[in-house]
Model the fold of this input.
Amino acid sequence: MRTGVWLVGARGSVATTSVIGALALRAGLAEPTGCVTELPELRGPALPAVDDLVFGGHDIVGTALTKRAEELADAGVVPAHLVAALADGLGAVEEEIRPAPTGDRQHRQAEAVAADLTRFADRHRLDRVVVMNVAATEPAPPDHPAHADLTALRTALTGDDPVLPPSSLYAYAAFTAGCPYVDFTPSTGARLPALVGLAAERGLPYAGHDGKTGETLVKSVLAPMFAMRHLRVRSWSGLNLLGGGDGANLAEPAANAAKTASKQRVLGETLGYLPQGHTRIEYVEEIGDFKTAWDLINFSGFLGTRMRMEFTWHGCDSALAAPLVLDLARLTAAAHAAGRSGPLAELAFFFKDPLGGTPGSLGEQWSVLRDFVAGLHVAAGSPTDDGTGAGDGLSD
Ligand SMILES: NC(=O)c1ccc[n+]([C@@H]2O[C@H](COP(=O)([O-])OP(=O)(O)OC[C@H]3O[C@@H](n4cnc5c(N)ncnc54)[C@H](O)[C@@H]3O)[C@@H](O)[C@H]2O)c1
Done:
């Protein structure tokens, strides 16, 4: 199944690491560590192979992909020898990156994006293209009446004033071009009734929001533990320190608010109440892509006895995110091939703020994902790999 992966924010850290990762896997220069779809429980014939993924995308900056890859190597995010070894592959992806359309009317920008997607699919004879938003996090947009209704939205897009934030305009263009859409960011994306209507009209699946890669991943494991042991979480405070492009963008208060809201949601959903405390994100240029998150949890047990735990997470954000981007592209392509439309709630495992309302326990989300993928493999004509290595996949 030849599958296009169209990266919105194609020259960013996550996008560049995803491309390097896929090229390295294809060349046999890396192990699929961190790729959930390469686990024996999930591998199988319904998923496009990494070899079948073709990359392209949009960005608002023109920095060469090879230069971005070298910067990531200098920062210790990816091994330097891979950048040299994969120069040809990076050059081929460079050819498929387009400048983000600008212009006075949003309907024209959406048409330009949709045309780029269609030409990309035609050029590479792709069965489908998954549009993946890995662009900088946006502030939440002001409400607009046209967000609620597809007909009103189509009319409003022809007007002088912008109606949609960029992430939603890309979702609109993706659906118009017949492409599934995945939002790896906390931005609005497809989360507007008018776009939900468009996806339904076109019979397309979509997924999001905000990849769960670090502190929130740990939270989604620890919070169910407190809930299952009937311990009372009195406060949960987190401090995230990060640099890089994402950190610089999140220094902007409105983007920061969008991100911190998505980070706290797991607590309310898992515990059934919101303990005191907030998650704060601070930009520290020196830290680069290596995030440090420190969490302090105050809780009480039998007879009200007060206790506490702390954890510190040092993660390389792009190295954690990139394999999930590949997983999500493969899973969303398989879901589309199987005829799924609407929100892919079964992919909640991957997200901080999952569409479709699956609760926040990572264990439950894993079971749902495993059953979902098993169903896709059965529909594709063969059960999941039994762990003997007999199935399709990179590590075979
Ligand atoms: N790395 C992680 O662990 C992780 C986890 C969850 C979510 N995310 C999200 O992934 C996104 C990407 O993170 P990153 O570290 O790669 O950031 P980055 O700043 O390195 O890259 C973002 C890219 O988006 C581009 N961009 C901005 N506006 C655009 C637009 N309108 N159209 C096209 N491109 C545009 C920028 O030019 C840049 O190249 C962020 O929103 C981040 O919050 C990352």
Observations:
- The pocket of nicotinamide-adenine-dinucleotide is lined by residues 8-9, 11-14, 58-61, 100, 134-137, 166, 184-185, 210-211, 213, 244-246, 249, 317-318, 320-321 (CB under 6 Å).
- The first strand starts at residue 3 and ends at 8.
- Residues 386-396 have pLDDT under 50 and may be disordered.
- The chain is about 40% helix and 15% strand.
